[in-house]
Structures are given as C-alpha cells and as structure tokens.
TrEMBL record:
PANTHER family: BENZIL REDUCTASE (PTHR43008), DEHYDROGENASE ARBD, PUTATIVE-RELATED (PTHR43008:SF14). The keyword NADP applies. Keywords: NADP, Oxidoreductase. The lineage of its organism: Eukaryota, Fungi, Dikarya, Ascomycota, Saccharomycotina. Belongs to the short-chain dehydrogenases/reductases (SDR) family. It comes from Lachancea mirantina. This is LAMI_0H07096g1_1.
Length: 311
C-alpha cells in the first residue's frame, strides 16, 4: 500500500532536517558540571566520562584529601587519553550545610572563567545499617540531613545562581527590558541526582531505614523541583542504581566471610545475577544531561538495577 501524503508531497529541501536536528549531541563543551561526592567511587567513572565529553568539572566533597587525589587522577586520565587541556576545580564542602553549599556554588565561576554551572551530577551520600528500633535519632537525622537536605541545598543554590545570571543579563539588555515579564529561560540546565533503588524497595537482609527514607525523599523531591522549575527550562531527574561494585562495596564484600555471604544474598535477588559496574550509569547520565537527547524528560527516576525491583 502506498502512502498518499508521502506520494503527493513535493520534495521540500528547505524543511529537510539536518543530522543535528535528528541526532542528539552528548558533548558538554563550554559547560561546568558540578559533581558532588566528587571523590567517591561512582563519581570517579562519571567524571571521566564528563571530561571525555568536554565538560569542565567542579568537584565537591567532604573528604578533602581524597578530593585532591581525585583531581590528580582525572588529570592523568585526560593526559593518557589525549583529551587536551581539562579544567577540574575542587571544593571541600559538607553538602548538608546550606550556607557552605551556597558559598561554594557562588565561588565556582571564579575558577571557571565566569561560567555559571548549569549541569549537576549529585552523588554525595552515605548509608548506615542499623536496626530501626536501635537507631540513635541524632545519627538518623544526620543521614537525612546529608542525603536528602543536601540534595535540596545543592539544587537550590545552583538554581538561584542561574536565575540571578539571567536577571543580570536582562537588566543590561534594552531589548529584553521591553519584554518586561519574560521568565528566565535556561534550556541547557539539567540536574541529575543519584537516588537508589532503596528509594523504591526495601533492601534485605541489611536494615537501613534512614537511608531508604532519604532516597525515597530524593526521588520525590526531584519530581517536585522538576514541576516548579520546568517554567525556567531547568530539568531535574534522578538515576536510582541497584548494587554497584565500587571500591567501597568491594571492600565490604571481600573483607570477610559475612561480606561474601551478603554479596551472594544481594546478587541472588538480581534477575541479571550480578552487581553493576560504575560505567553502566554513564549512558543514563549523559542522556539526562544532554539538552538535545532528553529535552522532554523531567521529573523522571531511571531505575538501573539489573531488574532487582521487578522481583
Ligand atoms: N554503591 C552502591 O551500591 C550504591 C547503590 C545505590 C545508590 N548509591 C548511591 O550512589 C552515590 C555514590 O555512591 P558511591 O558508591 O560512589 O559511594 P562513595 O562513598 O564512594 O561516594 C560518596 C561520596 O560522597 C561523599 N560524601 C559523604 N558525605 C558527604 C557530605 N556530607 N558532603 C559532601 N560529600 C559527602 C563521600 O566523601 C564520598 O566521596 C551515593 O549517593 C549512594 O547512596 C550507591
């Protein structure tokens, strides 16, 4: 059967899409990506991919020594892979302290030729395994402060700075003064927060109520921010990993017989029968950061867990 519309259509060269119209770009040249938990295991691989796509990096972490080490390693990675000159700045920062986060975010452009960061990869966080009825309230509160409130603080600070930049631009442009009420538009701004499958299911056998609460909070916070900030063009999404074989988890599972049994228990619950490698999150991150690939994706939680939550 022929398609009448296609058959009758005159070739219309003017409207022929170019490759750039149909193929998304994952390049991040000219952008600064803020990576929190920048000296962590997952961040390590994600940062390598970000550099390879041309992004400058601002690494935030509470662990000052490991931050410097992470920067040196990334520069070495860039050198070995002939990526040319890369720029990586490091920022000691407790993500659960709103005032410090604000201070750091506002200082970042000073080390990046005035570029205001519009890409975020938020990985900072930690887990504690404590039975719920024995959990010290202060310890639980501290975990929620870092994992959940920290997620809000970094998004707030970056958005405030981005909106302020748009307003400054408008105030010096007579053309846009006439537009008067126009909202700031930030079509490249994309925030990716690392949640966890623990925000959707309850892990077993280890008890981790505060962590699970905090990650469920992150996933719903992402939806709330996505709805509020869609009017500015800022997209907010989360990636929720299952168990990842990072240096940290490898140390836990290879350190004792108990650890090995724990890994067996975990992987027996994964349809794909194994833990994830950090590189298996790179594609999702680049998709979500790309303003052409994921321009219509916001408020989404991408669960990447080898099928864990299906069982
Ligand atoms: N490893 C896994 O199996 C797994 C699974 C699901 C989700 N996640 C999540 O992925 C993210 C990264 O995990 P990872 O495996 O790379 O762990 P990691 O411990 O290697 O990295 C986390 C980083 O966050 C930093 N951090 C902790 N508290 C901080 C604070 N108050 N302020 C600033 N930085 C702080 C740590 O110093 C560390 O460098 C975390 O949010 C974690 O909850 C991990």
């Amino acid at each position: 059967m022929t398609n009448a519309i296609v058959e009758s259509a005159e070739p219309d060269r003017a409207s022929m899409p170019s490759l750039a119209d149909v193929l998304p770009s994952f390049r991040l040249d000219g952008h600064v990506t803020v990576v929190t938990g920048g000296s962590g295991g997952l961040a390590h691989t994600l940062c390598q991919a970000l550099l390879a796509q041309g992004s400058e990096l601002a690494l935030l972490d509470i662990s000052v020594d490991r931050l410097e080490y992470a920067r040196l390693e990334l520069e070495e990675f860039a050198r070995c892979n002939k990526l040319g000159e890369v720029r990586v700045s490091t920022w000691p920062c407790d993500i659960g302290d709103a005032a410090i986060v604000d201070e750091v975010v506002h200082a970042i452009p000073l080390k990046h030729d005035g570029i205001v960061p519009d890409k975020l990869v938020h990985t900072a966080g930690f887990c504690q395994n404590v039975p719920a009825h024995e959990y010290d309230p202060k310890a639980a509160e501290n975990l929620v402060r870092v994992n959940l409130m920290g997620s809000l603080y970094i998004c707030q600070s970056m958005t405030k700075q981005l909106l302020a930049k748009c307003r400054r631009r408008r105030s010096v442009s007579s053309e846009s003064r006439e537009a008067g009420e126009a909202l700031p538009q930030l079509p490249n701004a994309s925030f990716v927060l690392i949640g966890s499958m623990s925000g959707c299911i309850v892990n077993t056998p280890q008890p981790q109520v505060a962590y699970n609460m905090s990650k469920a909070g992150v996933i719903h916070m992402v939806r709330s921010l996505a709805c509020e900030w869609a009017r500015y063009g800022i997209r907010v999404n989360s990636i929720s990993p299952g168990y990842i074989a990072t240096a940290l988890t490898k140390k836990v599972i290879s350190g004792s017989q108990e650890g090995a049994a724990l890994q067996q228990e975990w992987t027996s619950r994964v349809p794909m029968g194994r833990m994830a490698e950090p590189r298996e999150f790179v594609g999702a991150m680049l998709y979500l950061l790309s303003s052409t690939a994921s321009s219509y994706t916001t408020g989404e939680n991408m669960v990447i867990d080898g099928g864990y939550v299906c069982w």
